[in-house]
Amino acid sequence: MTPKKPSVVIVDDHDLFRAGVRSELEGAVEVRGEAGTVEDAERAILATEPDVVLLDVHMPGGGGVEVIRRVALHRPAQRFLALSVSDTPEDVIAVIRAGARGYVTKTISAPDLAEAVSRVRDGDAVFSPRLAGFVLDAFAGDFEPAQVDPELHQLTPREREVLQYIARGYLYKEIALELSISAKTVEAHVSAVLRKLQLSTRHQLSRWAVERRLVE
Amino acid sequence: MQQIDISARRTLYRDPERGVVAGVCAGLGQRLGVDPLLPRVVFVAAAAVGGMGVGAYVLAWLLIPAGPTGSATTERLRERPGSARTAAGVALLTLSGLLALRQLGILFSDAIVWPVVLGAAGVALVWRLSTPPGEEVAVDARPEVAERAQRHWATVGVYRGGFGVALIVGAALLFLYANGLLVGLRNLALTAVVVTVGLVLILAPFWWRLLRSLAAERAVRIRSQARAEVAADLHDSVLQTLALIQRRAQNPRAVATLARRQERELRAWLWGSPPLVAHDSVASALALVAAEVETEHGVTVDVVTVGDAPLDEPARAVVAATREALVNAAKFASDGPVSVYAESGPERLHVFVRDRGPGFDPDAVPPDRHGVRESIMGRMERQGGRATVRAALGHGTEVELALEREQ
Question: Using 50, 70 and 90 to split pLDDT, how confident is the model at B139?
């Protein structure tokens, strides 16, 4: 791990929540800015160029998905970690497919959040148990034969296994211990799943994405 | 009440509420103490004889105020100068246009010019009034205010529109009269066309507005219903919980439990997940069990379910065993959430209960400890499944429940 603290911008329309996250992460990360609206977020991110953006999913004016879309036009490599109270698969999948590298719920403890930020900064994916559950649900059953790239539309047995451990509440290093592989390999599996999640056109994923777009 | 009735009779008012057209006859009847039918007959007779009745009625309509607090139509037109000015402006424009055409050699006789000018003014007035000024100002969000304003403008619109209607009808009559059609009725077809055109001009804006105001009224009603529902729910649950939290602020564990329970209820309500009483599937039964343990033991339980299955007898046993495992975890796990992960399908039920407690040696559990041996392992074995407890010191404990199902 790089010794330098990761820099973040906190985007949430809830002032109280921003202040809470800021004081919790004090010392662990460098908070470069805050924003409460989509427009402010776009400005703050492009101006301060943080390592990671902590992004609320539900915000007026298009939500986190809209922030990702706008920033990606100027800074395609910007890394986002979605932070939300919502547990609906539509919300979670929509923000992941828009480009977020991870999803955690707002009840996460401060040390876990700081670790998740570091991991996203290093280019890894962060899956909460719930997100792992959604992915297992979405990739359940056989892939549709019509798909041109079967690799993309189903999980390997190892990926499935890793996701099951995440859903059971295991940390990456505990999974590595259980499966007798290195933590780096666990991270590689999770990143591969993230890529499939973002690119696959499996029926369930498309349905969730479409439902969210109708609601937004 | 009696007093007011008597004093009200001394002055002449129109009574639009009981009137047929504008309440002139109803008001007259009240003032003279006779049935309003009598003045009505007189007016109709006068109208039939020489058109006198119509003129007199319109004049009375304009000059007599509606009720003690109302004002005469002419006065109210002044209150809203926009409408009168618009009508006058349109009339003058039409007049100048026609006169200009006449100057250019396209000859219009007075028999056409004046009815057209009069009619144009009437149409302008009706159309102008068909837009209530309420739409120009910010709409008050409170439904009862909006409703009242809407009703008010509906009434006012009808009164003011009446003047425009009178102008158009007058124009049509003048046109017919000037062309000698009224006397001989020689050209019935033309009469019908003129009358129809007049009616369409009069009624179109009202019809249009009626449609729009009905839609607006419906929207207001739906909004107020939804708001009442939200208010009721927020009051019943969220406000009550907040009050409880304030009273038990010294007890962090109780506060956390209260907040957690409220979060669960609000979540179910907001995102429409099935209420936690629905007990017909493995996933909902597990959610219910987790909620119960959270409330009773003040721990956080995160439930992740993949797939679902109907809650039959073997599934019930698995859920009961899960509950025991959760209670166990809640007792021994000092802090941190307890994770429940369940995979359910038609052939297989697989549940993991994981805590982050200090961990214990399963072989060291004394045989008299019913919790693990009987409630969890015994229950699973009777259904043909198995329960495994895996524990590592400092690494938490995990209970695995597996049940293969025969089709």
Answer: very low
* Non-local CB neighbours of B15 within 8 Å, separated by 6+ positions: B23, B26, B27, B30, B66, B67
Which runs of consecutive H residues, i.e. helices, occur in chain A? Answer: 15-25, 38-48, 63-74, 89-98, 110-121, 129-138, 150-153, 157-167, 172-179, 183-199, 203-215
DSSP string, B156-192: HHHHHHHHHHHHHHHHHHHHHHHTTHHHH---HHHHH
Dihedral of CA atoms B180, B181, B185, B188 in degrees, nearest 10, equals 160
| Residue pair B292/B323 in contact by the 8 Å Cβ criterion | yes
3-state secondary structure B342-389: EEECCCEEEEEEEECCCCCCHHHCCCCCHHHHHHHHHHHHHCCCEEEE
CA dihedral B150, B156, B161, B162 (to 10 degrees): 140
| Residues of chain A contacting B271 with CB distance shorter than 8 Å | 86-88
DSSP string, A62-113: THHHHHHHHHHHH-TT-EEEEEES---HHHHHHHHHHT-SEEEETT--HHHH
Instruction: Give A 135-194 residues with CB within 8 A of chain B.
Output: 136-137, 140, 164, 167-170, 174
- When mean pLDDT is compared across A23-32, B78-87, B120-129, B131-140, the lowest value belongs to B131-140
Position A51 confidence tier, pLDDT thresholds 50, 70, 90: very high
Residue of A88, A140, A169 with shortest CB distance to B354: A169
CB contact under 8 A, B306 and A167: yes
Chain B residues inside the 8 Å CB shell of A173: none
Hey, which residues 112-131 in chain B have their CB within 8 Å of chain A? none
More confident position, A181 or B59 = A181
Q: A45 CA to chain B: closest CA distance, Å?
A: 31
pTM of the model: 0.58
The ipTM assigned to this model is 0.80
Residue of A174 and A87 predicted with greater confidence: A174
Closest approach of A150 to chain B, Cα-based (Å): 22
Q: Helix axis angle, B240-247 relative to B252-270, nearest 10°?
A: 170
Per-residue pLDDT reduced to its tens digit, B153-206: 555 555 556 677 777 777 777 777 766 655 555 566 677 777 788 788 777 777
Distance between CA atoms of B314 and B388, rounded to whole angstroms? Answer: 17
Instruction: Enumerate the residues of chain A whose CB falls inside 8 A of the CB of residue B333.
Output: none
**Which helix (DSSP H) or strand (DSSP E) does residue B395 occupy?**
none
Cα A27 from Cα B170, distance rounded (Å): 85
